[in-house]
Design brief:
The protein is of the alpha+beta class and 496 residues long. It has eight helices and 16 strands. The strands form five sheets. The protein has an eight-stranded mixed β-sheet. A two-stranded antiparallel sheet has the order 1-2. A two-stranded antiparallel sheet has the order 3-4. It is elongated and about 145 Å long. Bound molecules: alpha-D-mannopyranose.
């Protein structure tokens, strides 16, 4: 190799790349690249390391940190550590690094042929993939057109559905109004019955209170006094034979020694009623059946009968009308006109709900189309047909599914629920090409939410070719697709 300086053709020192040859002028002293010193040119490649950066010994192994340039004519030039020079191992395909023994065969033409073959194969994949990519673009165009037409149709359907809903709403309101008017009569009746029942209950309560007052007021002076209470065993709750103050606090609380019936009803009766009724229950056992024998020793017989009753309740309830409930709690029966109005209101409500649902469905689809129209499917929409598809990959433990523009999942081969490894987020780029980013997947145990990077490259078919988890819950996939087979001059250049 030669170097032309001022029109003079000079030899390029061994191990120097053509790009660096200008720094090695045999007519001048050599300045080390790091500027540490300037040495006579005769010391370059003299097998003694003078420069700290090894720049004076590009063609020998004298410096541990120097670099040697393999010209590798016919293939790709290469830079190796100068420590590998003359170490017995052929590093350069032209054998130039082993110039002392000169034992290396020049294999550059073989490597070049292999690289050409690889590049050719790759170019073939690109060319075939590109054909498919053009088809994908065509499909994407059709899909887009169909979506636009569908959106137009949906817009019309929406207007129609809004009208239907409005009409159904009006019908529902009218039917409900008629139903309410008809039911009002029944409601009024029910309200009246309820009030009457309340009144009756109140009266019964009053009667019970009156009876209690009458019983407690032993001197019948219509006033209840402390001593009248104190002699009633009812209130001797601890059964020590006396009624002490703490057993009748409700009485003492009145801060008076006697009360009339009204005061009794208002303030005392609600407090003593449970105790009083309990006591009354104890001293007034339930009345026996008319045909039931009375007397102490019949207890056993009664027990027996009770047992029989429990076993055969049907026999007992047979013809005895008095066992029937007095009041029926069933829904009230309505007259035919009201029944019809109720049915009509029910039907109108159902119609309205179905009209509303139909409108919701249309709005949902409109929204979906809008959302999808905002997705970036690549510069020529070439990735659009991949939306809605899923591609699987199975390794030793899991089945992974890549659904572009949607999500990535992982399912254990041994069964169980799928784990979401991320939902579609955005495109990114790496040295190798485009990357699909999926984020916000299921949370990792004690860690971040799962996420996946999908490195996309050109291939004849859509295929996930590998899956890794370089960090816990951070996944990387490699995905080949014809959509990535755009032939550019850069691609061809890179291949060679
Ligand atoms: C599951 C899988 C793994 C992940 C662990 C984290 O087993 O999703 O990929 O590393 O959970 O706990």
């Amino acid at each position: 190799m030669t170097l032309i300086v001022d029109g003079v053709d000079l030899p390029c020192p061994r191990g120097v790349s053509p790009k660096d040859a200008q720094f090695y002028d045999p007519m001048k002293d050599f300045p080390c690249f790091d500027g540490s010193q300037i040495i006579p040119f005769s010391l370059v490649n003299d097998d003694y390391c003078d420069c700290q950066d090894g720049s004076d010994e590009p063609g020998t192994s004298a410096c541990y940190n120097g670099s040697f340039h393999c010209p590798n004519a016919g293939y790709v030039e290469l830079k190796i550590l100068s420590s590998r020079v003359n170490d017995g191992i052929c590093d350069c395909c032209d054998g130039s690094d082993e110039y002392i023994s000169n034992h290396c065969e020049n294999t550059c033409h073989i490597l070049n042929a292999a690289a050409m073959a690889r590049a050719e194969a790759r170019a073939k994949v690109f060319s075939e993939g590109n054909e498919l990519r053009l088809q994908l673009i065509e499909t994407a165009k059709q899909m887009k057109q169909e979506k636009e037409e569908r959106a137009k149709k949906l817009h019309e359907e929406k207007l129609e559905a809004e009208k239907v809903k409005e009409a159904a709403e009006a019908q529902k309101s009218a039917a409900e109004e008629a139903e309410n008017a008809a039911l009002e009569v029944y409601r009024a009746q029910e309200e009246e019955a309820r009030q009457q029942k309340a009144l009756q209950e109140q009266q019964e309560e009053r009667n019970e209170a009156h009876e209690a007052f009458f019983n407690l007021d032993s001197n019948q002076n219509n006033l209840l006094e402390l001593r009248e209470i104190q002699v009633k065993q009812t209130f001797d709750t601890n059964k020590d034979g006396q009624v002490s103050d703490d057993e009748i606090p409700w009485y003492l609380n009145l801060k008076t020694e006697e009360v009339n019936e009204d005061m009794f009803f208002e303030s005392i009766w609600p407090q003593i009623k449970p105790l009083y009724m309990l006591e009354k229950g104890i001293f007034m056992p339930p009345q026996p059946h008319q045909d039931e024998p009375t007397g102490g020793e019949e207890t056993g017989e009664r027990e027996e009968e009770k047992d029989q009753n429990e076993e055969g309740p049907e026999e007992d309830s047979g013809t005895d009308d008095s066992n029937q409930p007095e009041e029926s709690h069933d829904e009230p029966m309505y007259d035919p006109h009201t029944t019809r109005l109720i049915e009509e209101a029910k039907e109108a409500k159902a119609q309205f709900e179905s009209a509303e649902q139909a409108l919701q469905n249309i709005l949902h689809e409109i929204n979906q189309i809008k959302e999808k129209s905002e997705v970036n499917y690549g510069p020529e929409d070439e990735y659009a047909p991949l939306d809605g598809q899923c591609y699987s990959y199975t390794d030793r433990e899991y089945v992974y599914r890549l659904c572009p523009f949607n999500q990535v999942t992982q399912a254990s081969k041994s069964g169980g629920a799928e784990t979401r490894l991320g939902t579609w987020s955005k495109w990114s780029t790496a040295d190798q090409g485009p990357v699909m980013i999926f984020e916000n997947g299921q949370s990792c145990w004690n860690g971040p939410q799962r996420s996946t990077k999908v490195f996309v490259s050109c291939g004849r078919a859509h295929e996930v070719t590998s899956v890794n988890e370089p960090n816990k819950c951070e996944y990387e996939m490699h995905f080949e697709t014809p959509a990535a087979c755009k032939i550019t001059t850069e691609v061809r250049h890179d291949e060679l």
